Request: fold
Amino acid sequence: MKLLQAIGVDVRVRTKQLIQDISLEVAPGEFLAIIGPNGAGKSTLLNALCGDRSISAGEVLLDGRPLNQWRKADLAQRRAVLPQHSAVAFDFTGLQIAMLGLLTHRGRLSEPQMKALAEQALSETEALAFADRPYTVLSGGERQRVQLARVLAQCDADPSVKPFLLLDEPISGLDLSHQHAALASARRRVERGLGVLAVLHDLNMAARYADRVAIIENGRLTAIGPTRETLDPDRLSTVFETPIMRVEAAGGTAFLSPG
Reply:
């Protein structure tokens, strides 16, 4: 089975334990949302799962093989990563940023094919208008949409491969319509058989788009399971230390916090 797995993973920095003994897996065709308080270790876990953070114990497996046994070029074809912050050192255009997701496919795709895939992804994230603009002049939300296009293009580059899509706060800085559009794009990849893991802060978005939810508290996995049962209002009120209630309306679910 093609899985992305964390097995008993610890991450320490000097004497500080960032995450401890976390085990979970992401399967093709599912959307797993990671939620939890600020500083709980959500981004640390995602960085460990994508190989950008060294682990102190345990192992991370992709298709049954430890990440450190994968060549970087092969790994780039099996997982696409949208980090929380994306620094760009050069004055690239939006199109050039989107095409960066296709670098590992240069030997298989022509320049026009890569350009078409990048433009298609920019169109999907409503960022095609930024194709010729310098990335550095874009707003935070516009940059986020361009970066999302980069990983979507990476996911779409080879229809025979279904990579894992790892998203760290993908809707940060986006207005409401673009938040839905971003997660709907991820959801469409799930329907095509990709596995998606996303760190989210918005409980309503997690409820709307995720198949399963994992809760991280103080560096530990404290709950994981189907979305509705995991997003229990009593549990959430304890986790986030504020009253949270669930409201059923118009055939959907909404979470409210009266404070």
